[in-house]
Amino acid sequence: MSKEKGQDLKPMERPQLGEIDGILLAKSTCDEWSRIQNFQAKPDDLLICTYPKAGTTWIQEIVDMIQQEGDLVKCQRAPLNHRHPFIEWARPPQPSGIDQAEAMPSPRILKTHLPVQLLPRSFWEQNCKFLYVARNAKDCMVSYFHFQRMSKLVPDPGTWDEYFEAFMAGKVGWGPWYDHVKGWWKAKDTHRVLFLFYENIKKDPKREIQKVMQFVGKQLNEATLDKIVHHTSFEVMKDNPMANRAGVPITVMDQSISPFMRKGTVGDWKNHFTVAQNERFNEDYKKKMADTTLTFSMEL
Ligand code: A3P
Q1: Ligand 1 center to residue 152 CA distance, Å?
Q2: Which family does it belong to (predicted)?
Q3: How far is the CA of 244 from the centre of ligand 1 (A)?
């Protein structure tokens, strides 16, 4: 192998994190912050909102398949991460999420992991539609840990025990899971938020996909709906190069460490949490979630 090629294969350096109002975000995102905050939303924007690893890719494919009325060829036009601009994404010299959103014709479908308090104000002012997917904290933690092991776009997670503590303390990218889900749960009382649960989509995808169809104002026949259910199953999406990040270089995401489409199940936390960790987690969870009506399924 030539020296040059060897250098190409060197894993990229992991990014540093910065902080905005106590929330950890990529430093490159913090550097773009005033532009992100001043982003001009439009009334017909639909914003897909999630905490990291809650099923963003899954709901993106569902929404796109609905928008394209089940046309698989249209859904293969680009990798998912290029179909819906990620508004707080910034990694110069690549075009930022804001650049991509500004270049996109309306009606736009955009993506964010931001907690409610950091969302650009224009989304609220324009009364946009928000599609939020929540996933139980334990499975989110496990999924995020494995993602941070394989993706050089985020910091190294350290050991599982270290990561367990960091996640509970909210010292991970996009901040605490607890405030994120509670904030968006509350927002649904005053804004146009369709709040879905990963566990429910897993349990009854047809029913949940129908809710999304209604929310985005599309009427599709039964056969198309069945096609969408099939095409967005974990097994099919795992082999879909436009969904599974197959095009991302190994130096950026090393899928031999952990695949991007990892397990796609509910309850994998049981294979990671020790009995002591589970007890500690539950006690802390009860306190942090005492002020909300929001509840989650930890298994199916
Ligand atoms: P696991 O790591 O538990 O497997 P995000 O897209 O927000 O990064 O979330 C990634 C998580 O969603 C991963 O969870 C991934 O496997 C899971 N996922 C992606 N597509 C899915 C699908 N069609 N069905 C179920 N889970 C899916």
Answers
A1: 18
A2: Belongs to the sulfotransferase 1 family.
A3: 10
